[in-house]
Amino acid sequence: MLFPILREQLLFLRSAGFEIHTASIDGPLGRRIQEDGFPWTAVPFSREVAPLADWRALRFVENFCREQRFSIVHTHTPKANVIGQWAARRAGVPIVVQTLHGFYFHDRMNWLKRRVWVAVERFSAKHSSHILCQNPEDVETALRLRIARPEQISLLGNGVDLQRFSPADDLRRREARAKLNIQQDALVVGMVGRLVSEKGFPEFVAAGERLAGRFPKLHLLAVGHQLVSERAGEGWTPPASGPLKQRMTVLVNRDDMPDLYAAMDLNVLPSHREGFPRVLIEGAACGLAQVATYIRGCRQTIDDGKTGLLVEVGDVSGLAAAIERLLNDGGLRTEMGRAAREKALAEFDQTKVFEKVAAHYRQLLSMLVH
Question: Across-strand partners of 191?
Fold first, then answer.
């Protein structure tokens, strides 16, 4: 989460005059935040629900906050939102903020599990001075389920660097494909996400296998991080055989996302659960037509029929049909890609998001003075 997702926000906040100290579960991505000069501390969070280990993590964060005497603690992941905020309150931190990147529970979850997760979110919100919510639908859900009070939660939105993520010209497209050893005249369908089943990688491959015979030049490009966490779910392994054996490229832990989007004709995300998917924002900013599932987050990012197409979760036939429609109609892909870029310019500017975070910090600090 710290690197790369929060990196630009942290740089902005530091330039705005805030002194930043970062902390996360240990790992190569977490450590990389130090490359920008940010102090970083490894927090001993367990990646699974483990009461004893979680209690130790709570005490660690509590002592850490007490020693550092932070004015603000801001958390971002499900476990940090629960344990980190609780620990910060126990340590006497005056302002505790969470960014809600999306609720873990969803409409297809069984009622008991959903009820447990709602209770967890209520406990988390109990320790929040303020909740910054990326998705407007999550704000409505939080209020309807009495997870948060109206004055306690506000819409933050989500965004990317619209200069870094921008439509590729023909030269950049050719160079991107050459680096990946993908034929220049291939029809490249890409997908980006954590390499877990709930992101929809099995459906992505199944749809590709159905289309392989109809599109001799079809090539699938799968890009992701191999992460294990409290929300990772069942892992996904690329198929070792089948009709896509020579027509699928799988890349892991890449930092060159703009170049990878430049190689695509179409961006796909058949995910089962999302908050406000960054990969669809990036794809829109790069001017790509997109296909995703009709779920929270995706339906806020894609205007169905205008910037892309939405299908039902787990519907391989519907996914294949949507991809086929766009592969067969280059004009429609171009039109949707142009509309997606316009939507990104209007709604997905990360600078506006960063400014909101800084403004909330200043407002909360001013309330302490008064």
Answer: 222, 268
How far is 119 from 104, CA to CA, in rounded Å?
A: 12
> Residue 358 in contact with residue 16, Cβ under 8 Å?
yes
The letter for the amino acid at 125 is A
CA 336, CA 12: separation in Å to the nearest integer? 32
Q: pLDDT tens per residue, the chain (370 residues)?
A: 788 889 999 999 999 999 999 999 988 878 999 999 999 999 998 767 788 999 999 999 999 999 999 999 999 998 899 999 999 999 999 999 999 999 988 888 999 999 999 999 999 999 999 999 999 999 999 999 999 999 999 999 999 999 999 999 999 999 999 999 999 999 999 999 999 999 999 999 999 999 999 999 999 999 998 765 444 457 888 887 788 988 999 999 898 999 999 999 999 999 999 989 999 999 999 999 999 999 999 999 999 999 999 999 999 999 999 999 999 999 999 999 999 999 999 999 999 999 999 999 999 999 987 6
Give the H/E segment covering residue 346.
helix 330-347
Nearest partner of 70 among 80, 82, 62, 79, judged by Cα:
62
pTM > 0.85: yes or no: yes
> Pairing mode, if any, of strands 187-192 and 266-269?
parallel
Diameter over CA atoms, the chain? 69
Lookup result for tokens 């280990």: 53
Quick check: 75 and 101 in contact, CB under 8 A?
no
In angstroms, the CA 55 to CA 5 distance is 27
Residue-wise over 238-251: b if at least 16 C-beta within 10 A, else e? ebeeebbeebbbee
